[in-house]
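DM from R.C. (forwarded with permission)

"hey, sorry to bug you on a friday — could you get me a structure for this? deadline for the figure draft is monday and I only need the backbone to look sensible"
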Amino acid sequence: MIEFDNVSLKYGNGPIILKDISFSIEKGSFHFLTGPSGAGKTSLLRLLLLSLKPSNGKMSMLGQDVSALDTDKLLQLRRHIGIVFQEFKLLEHLSTFENVALPLRVLGQQPEQYKENVTELLDWVGLGEHMHSLPNTLSGGEKQRAAIARAVISRPDILLADEPTGNVDPELAERLLHLFAELNRMGTTIIIATHELSMIKKFNYPQMALKNGGIIIK
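My reply, with the result:
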């Protein structure tokens, strides 16, 4: 599913963020991405999202050598990847419902095909009463839940999440992790960057630990 071979990353003339990291992620696995602040968790997620290119090394995603793909093929590959970043990136002119439904619209589905599924998911994450609200009327936690719902609605092959439970209370955080776990049981490969040790212990999935530019899977 995912393979890194001696991948390094640095920004311009700055210091090396990731140094010669190698790992393989099997299809249908679930990993927590851990490490101290500044260890490179977000940078690694951006590499996995294909929004950054490595400075050195080889990356393969979904059986394809990323370096050999042109822009159009990279965009096609990215459609198989769901992402939840800390900055949410909701479209301000679209309602919560429309934001969550957007990946399905991009795939060519019509409203009558996705209305029930989107409504059910919004109810599940506690946003049923806000489905017609615009993002600027939502709290930080509500925006986070909307971003998560948008990322999982199309059941992507790979789901990446950067601190997805950072703006919600512990009870809802656990509920969201159960949502990720259910998606994983349906076949989605999941990588979640987090510093919440209680969640890591409770769900007991393998960890990809970043430290000093390197990575250890444990």
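R.C.: lifesaver. Helices lie at 41-48, 71-78, 96-106, 111-124, 140-152, 170-185, 197-203.
me: no worries. Residues 92-154 form one domain.
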